[in-house]
Amino acid sequence: MRQSLKKLYEWCQSLATHARAKWALAGVSFIESSFFPIPPDVMLAPMVLADKSRAWFYAFICTLASVLGAILGYIIGRYLFELIGSPILDAYGAQAAFDKFTSFYADWGFWIVIVSAISFVPFKVATIASGVVAMEPISFLVACIIGRTIRFYGVTAALMINIRLWLFNPLRRGIMISLGSLGILAAVFGFEHLMGLAPCPLCLNQRIAFYVALPLGLIAALTGTKKPTLSSASFMLLTLIFLANAAYGGYHAGIEWGYWPGPSSCVGGRMEITNIEELIKSLENDAPPSCSEAPWRLFGLSLAGYNMLASLGLALLASLPILYKRHRKS
Questions:
Q1: 6 and 144: one domain?
Q2: Is there a single domain that holds both residue 104 and residue 193?
Q3: pLDDT at 263
Q4: 188 vs 111, which has greater pLDDT?
Q5: Rounded distance, CA 216 to CA 205, Å?
Q6: Co-location of 143 and 277 in the same domain
Q7: Which residue numbers delimit the VTT domain (predicted)?
Q8: Residue that terminates a domain, selected from 160, 177, 199
Q9: Whole domain around residue 189: which residue ranges?
């Protein structure tokens, strides 16, 4: 089996230099989403490096063909599982991964498909399993588009961009921090207004760091050339803000896990009603959600946990030049 996979891998690599490489790329991307074992990245990487002027076109081919192939995988799981789907899983020894996906789907649904589409786990397992559990087709399609776009455009960007130049350039780094903060705020507002997850007081407090980081990141970016001292000070301040917010997110996550009590102003719940006056008062004063109850989790982490990770990542991005200089000196 290993020898066969090696031959397939080498064959896919050879297709990257073929006269009709882009069609081969589309074909491999399509079939990999339903039954083929070799991911299209094997072809995408050398094709991007060989012709960077068409890199984003190649990423588009991968994304489109892979999403179309995912539809085939979904159909196999939904209507042809016993005939085709089960033998595919058995052939690759993927039954355990399939069982794990279906168990995850009960809790995380839409999100587990996105994660599967981004990660390097066999995407065919996710597409077939999505059909088996009868995931809502539009949700499945949207999840595949989001995940595969992030995957293939991310791989292409990593090959195209000089990472060190991007991360150490104040303009780009500041803009990345501002855009990252904007994206996080957009996500939490989506959870609140689209998914109906009302924020508790601690959740609202954790948004403040991103509100501040939006303009501060732009200040750090735009002053990098003419006023480097101001830019450096802004990045230092951003680092401290994000570290503090990460600690705050960890504190909130600890409350949710029951490691320590939350503030008295954040207990949630409703007052005990014993008469009509208290009933009227309870209706007029809707209590905020409890800080100790996580309404949503993915891979065991609540939004507070993900805020902690995101804040740590942005703190690292803001402080990269300082850390690099210290590393060089040591």
A1: yes
A2: no
A3: 85
A4: 188
A5: 18
A6: no
A7: 42-153
A8: 160
A9: 163-329
Residue 302 backbone phi and psi in degrees, to 5: -85, 180
Cα–Cα distance between 65 and 11 in angstroms, integer?
A: 19
Based on the fold, state whether residues 135 and 97 are members of the same structural domain: yes
Q: What is the number of other CB atoms lying within 10 angstroms of the CB of residue 240?
A: 13
Tokens of 156: 């292409």
Residue 297: beta bridge partners? 302
- Tell me the three state secondary structure of residue 300: coil
Cα distance between residue 42 and residue 60, in whole Å: 16
Q: Are residues 180 and 149 in the same domain?
A: no
Pair of tokens at residue 80: 């042809």
d(CA 303, CA 248): 12
Asked if 124 contacts 33 with a C-beta cutoff of 8 angstroms, the reply is yes
At 270, the pLDDT band (50, 70, 90 cuts) reads very low
Check: pTM over 0.70? Answer yes or no: no
pLDDT at 116 over 90: no
CB 12 within 8 A of CB 38: yes
- How far, in Å, CA of 118 to CA of 148, rounded? 6
- 292 close to 268: Cβ distance less than 8 angstroms: yes
On the question of pLDDT at 40 being above 90, the answer is yes
Residue 254 has phi, psi (to 5 degrees) of -65, -35
What is the arithmetic mean of pLDDT over 100-106?
A: 73
Q: What average pLDDT does the structure give for the chain?
A: 85
Q: Do residues 66 and 29 lie in contact, with contact meaning Cβ atoms separated by under 8 Å?
A: yes
Instruction: Check whether residue 286 and residue 187 sit in a common domain.
Output: yes
Q: What is the DSSP letter of 169?
A: -
